[in-house]
């Protein structure tokens, strides 16, 4: 998972700075497994 600030998509440096885009470059089953692991890690 990669977080990309929206500001890189605009000519003006402050445009889009309150937003972020996420790229999920994995198969859905891998993302589902990762989400389950994170839930387990943070919820005990």
Automatic annotation (TrEMBL):
Keyword Transferase among UniProt keywords: yes
Organism superkingdom: Bacteria
Molecular function GO labels: transaminase activity
Keywords linked to the UniProt accession: Aminotransferase, Transferase
InterPro entries per record: PyrdxlP-dep_Trfase_small
Keyword Transferase: yes
Protein name: N-succinyldiaminopimelate aminotransferase
Organism whose genome encodes this protein: Actinacidiphila paucisporea
Higher taxonomy: Bacteria, Bacillati, Actinomycetota, Actinomycetes, Kitasatosporales
């Amino acid at each position: 998972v990669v977080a990309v600030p929206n500001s890189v998509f605009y000519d003006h440096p402050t445009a889009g700075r309150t937003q972020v885009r996420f790229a999920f470059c994995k198969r859905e089953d891998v993302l589902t497994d990762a989400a389950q692991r994170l839930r387990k890690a943070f919820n005990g």
